[in-house]
Design a protein that fits this description.
- The complex is a heterodimer of chains A (739) and B (326).
- Chain A is α+β, with helices and mostly antiparallel strands.
- Chain A has 16 helices and 30 strands.
- Chain A has a seven-stranded mixed beta sheet with strand order 3-5-1-11-8-9-10.
- In chain A, a hairpin with a 4-residue loop joins strand 15 (387-388) and strand 16 (393-394).
- Among the domains of chain B are: 5-46; 225-325, CO dehydrogenase flavoprotein, C-terminal domain (Enolase-like, domain 1, 2-Layer Sandwich).
- In chain B, helix 5 packs antiparallel against helix 9 (164-170) and helix 11 (285-295) packs across helix 12 (307-325).
- The termini of chain B are far apart.
- The chains are: A alpha+beta (739), B alpha+beta (326).
- Chain A binds chain B through residues 41, 43, 117, 120-121, 124, 273, 427, 612-615, 617, 652-653, 657, 659, 661-662, 664, 666-669, 671-672, 674, 676-680, 734-736, 739, and chain B through 1-3, 39-40, 117, 119-120, 122-123, 125-126, 138, 141-143, 145, 230, 232-238, 240, 307, 310-311, 314-315, 317-318.
- Bound molecules: flavin-adenine dinucleotide and iron/sulfur cluster.
- Iron/sulfur cluster (SF4) binds at residues 116, 118, 120-121, 128-130, 137-139, 147, 156-158, 199 of chain B.
Amino acid sequence: MKENYTGTPANRVDGRAKVTGEAKYAAEFEVPGLLYGVVVNSAIAKGKIKHMDTSAALQLPGVHQVFTHENRPGYSWFDKHHQDEDAPPGSPFRPLGSNEIKFSMQPIALVVADTYELARYAALLVHVEYEAQPHETDLEANLPRAYKPKKYKSPPPSDPRGDAAGAFDKAEVKLEQAYAHPAHHHNPMEMHASIAIWKEGGKLTVYDKIQGVQNSQQYISNAFGIPKENVQVISPFVGGAFGSGLRPQYQLFLAVLAALELKRAVKVVLTRQQMFSFGHRPHTVQRLAIGASPDGKLQSITHNAIAETSRFEDYNEDVVIWPGVLYDCDNVEVSHQLVDLDVYTPLDMRAPGGTTGTFALECAIDEMAFQIGMDPLEFRLKNYTEKDLNEDKPHSSKELKECYRQGAEKFGWANRKMEPRSMKEGHQLIGWGVAHGAWEAQQQEASAKAVLSPNGKLTVSSATADIGTGTYTVMTQIAAEVMGLPLEDVTFELGDSTMPKSPLEGGSWTVSSVGSAVKLVCEKLQEQLLKMAQKMKNSPFSEAKLADVSFANKQMFLTHAPATSISLQAILDQNEGKPLEAEASQKPDSKQKKYSSYSHSATFVEVQVDEELGTVKVTRIVTAVAAGRIINPKTGRSQILGGSVWGIGVALEEHTVLDHNLGRFMTHDLDKYHLPVSADVHETDVIFVEEKDEIVNPLGAKGLGEIGIVSVAPAICNAVFHATGKRIRELPITLDKLL
Amino acid sequence: MRPFTFTQAQDVDTAVQEVSLEGAKFVAGGTNLLDLMKIDVMSPSHLVDITQIALETIEETEAGGIRLGALAKNADTAYHELVETRYPLLSHAILAGATAQLRNMATDGGNLLQRTRCYYFYDTQTPCNKREPGSGCSAIQGYNRDLAILGTSEHCIATHPSDMCVALAALEATVHVTGKNGERAIPFADFHRLPGDTPHLDSNLQPDEIITSIELPAKGFAKHYTYLKLRDRASYAFALVSVAAALELEGDTIKEARIVLGGVAHKPWRVPEAEALLQGQKATRDNFRKVAEAYLQGAQGFGHNDFKIELAKRAIVRALEQATNR
Ligand SMILES: Cc1cc2nc3c(=O)[nH]c(=O)nc-3n(C[C@H](O)[C@H](O)[C@H](O)COP(=O)(O)OP(=O)(O)OC[C@H]3O[C@@H](n4cnc5c(N)ncnc54)[C@H](O)[C@@H]3O)c2cc1C
Ligand code: SF4
């Protein structure tokens, strides 16, 4: 019978390689004659480099060069040549571009030496004199300067619906509050790293930590004016990225620059501290004004966001789309403004905008429910929307109600007492909170290639990435299932710019986009196999169409008469020892345009808050997710668990602190930038709710990368309120705020 | 990292000689020093590895206490039977710090001399009097959430980050050291310094001196004790405020109380006069709060760390409550 690989919790196909160290990350490739580059970063946030003395560094034997703005080789100066696939509107930063300092920790020199240790030592000897200018890094102090960007990176905020201000004025129950979300840094386990290898004839091979090799390839080609075919970018494994690898980072630029100039191979790896010298989730302040009727019907929502960006690019994200996605309300007005500061441009970070916006909206909704005296879950149900009201489109599927039901049941929500501070054990106040969230299920155009070898082994490839999400595994499952092959006979390859085109791995669209291409390319192989079988003598398939046959157990057979079968090997044997090959490109189907597609989640949380000391412990998290078909419940569950843990960090711990005197992020290592540790994580449950979706894409799968995080932090905030009666509107909720 | 030379000393005398060289430093577990060398906060030109010296024994003393060899590992100390049964406060304090891996490397001597975790101390591109005397203190006007509220100076408001030391101060340990001029014993209360106008000095240990052992007196408060550590996450974070509390009780009357605060000053913070307020008193929350108020007298916040004053008071009350009920 047909074996379903998708939908089963297959182990990671690359698990063994990862735990044995066989899997190689960008910095780990051994290259003969490799030189090491170490970056020097700016001490000031704004001003000019007056003078740079590199002589002491250059005098050390084994130091090859110190690249600065004074001696760097030329490169293209056009903005468009520095704009990568994920660049926001503006004029991208060019490393070593000039003597101008635009943000603290700006890369200002690259020391290249025979060994890493030597380069690191020499970097200490680079002496820099600055002419500092006053900087502005404080978002809250600069709010009056907020502006509407000329161009938005993500879709501009929707037009107002109804009359939010009027309805708010008239509403019997009102809430108006401000919420602050601090800057966060991605902090993947693997630091950003690139090795650029110069080859005779000016060709380059580059190993890069990136969420899409073709983005780096195009960027290098544009910035340095090298034909694309002369640049090969390879990135088979990525040790987490969370968005930090969507844009090529400066270590890539500097490694390439040095390799081209020195005609050598150069590796540049950032330090943990330097991981705080580029993009981050922007500090964002939000205002919510909500009006409702005393019986709990939403009448008005106004959601305004003001976020930081750099002086050179206008970064924005989907902070204010959530009222229209999540709530039935006739009068809605949203806005998203920016304040440009002397910082590096913010950068997409897991559920960009979703994490930030859902936190504020879901806290405000909880406040409103409390004000009205309604159970917060009931309040959400009362204002449930079947439609995406931003776009006025139906959902391709939406099982959020089922998420509520199953989540609440598992959690025991029905036993919740309304009153805050009503549950207590010893000194511990106990609180229960709920929140929900959504994340768009998008499909991008993607391509894949499949090669079926004469001995029946299948290799499928696409230039996508696996940032730890399980791409290798789920693509293998999809291909194996379509072709009816055991998982062991299928290999999926990714992370090489010479492979068929793929979008960046981000936006939770990889399974949907690349997975659909993988399915299609395998179907093309099926067609070839059928044709070949039909050419065989006395073929029982001569009349069959593709729709009439199935593939399983290394066989092709007539679906209505499974006994009529032929082994794939027998067909392949007809091909004179040649492999079968196919390439395919899959675009979103036009019928999708009539629908909105989102993954949904509902999170239930229990916290314990020490009544005197303010310490918060998240004792239970139940997240129920509706995300279409779950291709691999095991890797999928890991995504949601990771999101839950991150949600704890967002709610309680994470914060990159800017010292405004210095204009510098000061919590720039993992001692001072707190992420949750194992001891912070207790019972964590994941429920996948069944959701059939024949519209979203050919796989019916919506993507799980970001949905796991969005509803967790607000649910924790709401639980803290329920425990303590204190509403904290500025993240993270550290114990001092609860004293 | 800057280049340095490296030797291994086999005995205390050689170690003392070697460390007298210009720019020399001892290295034990290396969990603090090497981190700081990598980021150029400390740059000794010569490292004297002392881990070959036989100083890792934990044994009973004639006076009825115990002696911890300076090179005993934090983990071995915390799980040592003598420590667990007679000085459980010390075990708990050690285990509240760092991680299992770090405690396996870290030595007891090194723990005493670990340096502050002030944000600016760790970033050589910012002014910091402790790192670079005279350059200024970035923390006073800057970000100071983790920093001190007691015993600060206009030059530095750093804290001593150790957990172990808080317990050692409560247990009235003695630090034995050997230098060019021979041996001496330093009472724990005098081991660390306040920043004053010499914030670059963390302790009164002389540059040529090596810690050989830490001695604990017989009295271990094994019945009524607690180490309460409040921090921003459940593990792998330094204390915002910690309290080592030890009580000797007769019924519900306090015969003797020891209270030492961590995370609030440049050294473990003990106020014997305030402790004395509890002597002969009943173990009640009211009395605890009185002591807590006395402990925090003169405390001063710098903005982000103002909360520590109230937190420390509540922590004292809680710690004493826990110690009483244990
Ligand atoms: C990530 C991280 C988290 C941590 N968390 C905590 C925590 O929560 N609580 C806590 O208390 N600690 C914590 N620590 C600190 C840890 O306890 C110290 O690093 C450790 O105790 C230092 O011991 P060591 O032997 O490795 O010292 P080393 O790094 O070898 O030396 C430290 C200093 O002591 C000097 N020295 C060492 N031994 C002697 C001696 N016998 N005589 C004279 N001088 C000597 C050295 O010259 C050096 O200056 C943490 C450390 C890290 C890296
Ligand atoms: S508090 Fe001390 S360690 Fe911190 S910046 Fe000031 S002087 Fe340096």
